[in-house]
Design goal:
about 130 residues; about 90% helix
Length: about 130
């Protein structure tokens, strides 16, 4: 295995930080949506459909998974840097590889969450078109 330098794992820091910011923004927007739906539900029981709640619950679970895998990836990058620092290059390489796999998993879950979000928005758009007709 080719020897890693300290800069290799540190390259992921900015990328993972930006991803975590995006994930957190998505989570906050869903949290606000849940709060709004709860208000609607207390005012009018028929305003919120059970499939809508299930969809949001699934999306929140996916965002949680995205965040967990992203944080684990960042943590392992730091551990990898520590192993490089103490000159345990083989261990550092394997740990960095695992960090990259975790980041790939996080991104794959993000793609799935985006697909579900788009499907949900398309249903709303379809409903709006039906109302206009």
């Amino acid at each position: 295995m080719e020897q890693l330098s300290l800069t290799t794992p540190s390259l992921l820091f900015s990328a993972i930080s930006l991803l975590m910011l995006a994930y957190t923004n998505r989570f906050l927007s869903y949290a606000q949506l849940v709060r709004n739906l709860k208000e609607k539900l207390t005012e009018d029981k028929s305003a919120v459909a059970l499939p809508q709640i299930a969809n949001l619950r699934k999306r929140l679970t996916l965002i949680q998974s995205m965040q967990i895998f992203g944080i684990m990836s960042l943590l392992l990058c730091v551990v990898s840097m520590f192993f490089i620092y103490i000159r345990m290059y083989n261990a550092a390489g394997y740990i960095f590889g695992i960090a990259m796999i975790l980041l790939i998993i996080s991104l794959a879950i993000c793609v799935r969450e985006i697909q579900i979000s788009m499907r949900s928005l398309n249903l709303h758009l379809h409903d709006m078109e039906e109302i206009e007709k």
